[in-house]
Amino acid sequence: MSIYLIRHTEVDVPKGTCYGQKDVPLKKNAEKEFAKLKRLLPKSYDVVYSSPSQRCTELAKFLNPNFKTEKALLELNFGDWEGMLWQDIPEHELKIWGENFVTEKPPKGENLLKLFERTSQFFDTLRMYDDQDIVIVAHAGVIRCMIAYMLQIPLENIFKIQVGFGKVYKFDLKDDSQMDQWFI
C-alpha cells in the first residue's frame, strides 16, 4: 500500500493569520500548483480522500472528480482564535496553550491529542485498501499527526515535522505477519 499525503497549496489570507477549520480560499494561482502536484503522483491511484475544507477539496477534485470527503481530515479547531492574527491572540492564552499544546486547547477549540486521535482512527480504516494507492489531501496538522502515528513520534515533537504548502509525502507499507513497517 502506498499513501500520498498532500498539503493544500497556499491560502489567500494575511500573513500571520490563525486559521484551522475556518474555510479560507486558496491563492489565485492554485490550478498551476495543482498541475505540478499531479505530476508528482503515479499516473493512477485508487482513491482520493480530502478534508471538507474548500482549500483541500479544490485540489482533490482536480486530482479525481470522484474524491471522498472525510471530516476526520479537518485541521485543528482553533476555536475563538480562528481568523485572528497570531499577534492579536491574548498573550496569556497563547502561553497556556504553548506550554502544553498536546492537551491544552484554545478557547472553544480542540487540543492536539483530539486531532491525533481522530486522524489516527481514520488512518487505521485505510488498511481495507490493502495493496492500493491512496491520496489524502489535508492540512499541516493532520499530516503531522499521521506521520507521527506511522513513525511513532511523540506528539511533543510534532512541530519538528516540516509540512510545506503543496508538498507530497509518500509512505509505503510493507506488511509482514510479524509487524507493519512504514517506509518514506
UniProtKB/TrEMBL annotation:
SMART domains named in the record: PGAM (SM00855)
Natural source organism: Soonwooa buanensis
SUPFAM superfamilies in the cross-refs: Phosphoglycerate mutase-like
One Pfam family in the UniProt entry: His_Phos_1
UniProt-listed NCBIfam families: ribazole_cobC
Biological process terms in GO annotation: cobalamin biosynthetic process
Site entry (Transition state stabilizer), positions: 139
Gene Ontology terms: cellular component: cytoplasm
Protein name: Alpha-ribazole phosphatase
EC number(s) stated in the UniProt entry for this protein: 3.1.3.73
